[in-house]
Amino acid sequence: MTRPFERFRPHPWHGLDPGPEPPWRVHAYVEITPFDLVKYEVDKPSGYLRVDRPQRTSALPPTLYGFIPRTYCGERVRALMPGTARGDGDPLDVCVVSERPIARAEVILGVRVVGGIPMRDGGEADDKIVAVLEGDLLWGGVRDVAELPRALLDRLRHYFTSYKSLPGEALRVELGPSYGAEHAARVVEAALADYAAEFGSGRVG
User: Fold this and answer.
1) I want to staple 25 with a disulfide (CB 3.0 to 4.6 A). Which of 21, 167, 192, 203 is the partner?
2) Residue 5 within a domain
3) CATH number reported for the structural domain that contains residue 116 in this entry
């Protein structure tokens, strides 16, 4: 019996499945790797990666970086981050910890949500979910961000604090204290609900 397949390339934001057991086990679509000197971002109309900008400083993302398909940071995500005026209107960002280096983008990973970092960017809620690669021999058993090395979280926080600003410029973003798996799951659920409200529950396109 022929297995089902996609005849045409699905849009990574709207056409891919969010994961087998959201909000805990989800898919991550990778836009940037720790080896990229250029920031790539999915082009919303086409679904292809485009060059957003060269990295402004020598800081590189310490983990894989992308988003969870069929999520949207809207009103429900905003409500979980006091002091913000709106969600950022993008899919929910995710940082994926992996022992083995993954040096290419535009790949889909199965990941487990373990926590997150709340980021306010120009008054917008722009959460950074932290996840571990499923099946990873070193990190696959982690269930909460508190089990990850403090140095790794410090590197993530430093990257997101500085990646839009050059030395001497005013900081453009504000990061709150990291949160654990339970709150991260609520953020993912909110982003899934925001997506359904904005685009409908089915695939777009």
Assistant:
1) 21
2) no
3) 3.90.80.10
